Write the C-alpha cells for this entry.
Amino acid sequence: MPTLSPQNTALIVGAGFAGSVTARELAEAGHRVRVIDKRPHIAGNAYDERDAYGVLVHRYGPHIFHTNGERIFQWLSRFTEWRPYEHRVRGVVDGRPYPFPINRDTLNQLYGLDLDEAGAAAFFERVREPREPVRTSEDVVLNSVGRDLYEKFFLNYTRKQWGLEPSELKAGVAARIPVRTNTDDRYFTDAFQAMPLHGYTRMFEAMLDHPNITVELGVDFDDVRHRIERDHTVYTGPIDAYFGYRFGHLPYRSLRFEHEYLPDVAQYQETGTINYPNDHAYTRITEFKHLTGQQHTGTSIVREYPQAEGDPYYPVPREENEALFKRYEALARTEPDVTFVGRLAQYRYYNMDQVVGAALVAARTLIDTLR
C-alpha cells in the first residue's frame, strides 16, 4: 500500500487532467505536492492559448468536454465557469457534408429518401450485416449500418486514424460512435456539455493554484527521477516508458497538427468539426470559434494528420496490445509507492471526464491510507 502521510511530499509526473486533479485533491488533504511536466506549459493535451492573431485555439486538437457524471462536472466547476456548447460534426462523402454520427437526416440526404423514425430503423435492419460474435470495429459497424455506410463513413477514416483496418481494432473503438434513427445531430448526448468559459488553461491554472502545490515545467521525469525526494509518485505518462520499455514499446497513435489562420473569414465551416473520411491525408478540420464562441474578424482552424511517430495520444486498442499492457500492469503492482493514472499510464482510451474520474479515485485511495 502507498505510504503517504500528512505533510509528506507527493511527486506528480504530468500537469494534464490526471496529474492536476490528483494534485489538487492531495493538496487540499494537507500534502505537499510537486508537479513536473516536460512540456513548457500546464494542461497537457487540453492546453489552449491565443494564437498570433488573438484567436483562442487548442494546440493539440479539439477538446470538447462532455460527461454524464454530475460529480465530475461539479468538481471541475470549482475552477471554471462554463459556456454551454453542443458539438456538431459533418462527414464529407463525395464532396457533400452529411450529419455524423449517422442519423435519419444522413440517410434521407444521402439516398434521397423521406424516412420517418420507424422507416430509418427498418432501413438499418435491412442493410445491416449481422455479426456474431461482435469482436472488432468492423463487426460493430457492419452489424449496425451495413456495408455501404461502413465504406462511405468509417472504413477509410479508420485506416487514416489508426493505420489499421477496422477488422484489426477492438470493438470498443467503433462502439464509441452511435447510430440514430432520429434527427439528433449532436455528436454527444451527455447530460453535461460545456466548454470552460475562459479556456482549459485558465481552468488548470485555478486547479493548481494552492499553497501546497508547486509546479515545475520543462522537467523530464527521467532526468530527475533519482534525484527528487518524495514519499509517493503519481505517474501519468506512458507506463512502458516508466519501466524503460522492459517488454517492448506499447503502440500509441500520434497526431500532427496543421494550424491556419484565415483573415477576414468570419466562419470557415458550418459546424465545429468536419470529417474527411475519404479525401485528403488529414482526418478532420476543426474551427475553434464554434467551440469557444469567440468573436473575431478572422478565424483559426486545425487539420489533423494521424501518424505512427510522435507524442503518444491514443493507445491502440488491440488484443495483443492489451496483453502487453497487462505485463506492465503486473510490474506496476510491485511499485507500492507509485500510482499510475491516466490515459497513457493505464493504457485506456479515456475521455477527459473519465480521466478526471480515475484521478479522483486514485487521490481518494491515497488519502484514505492515512486513516
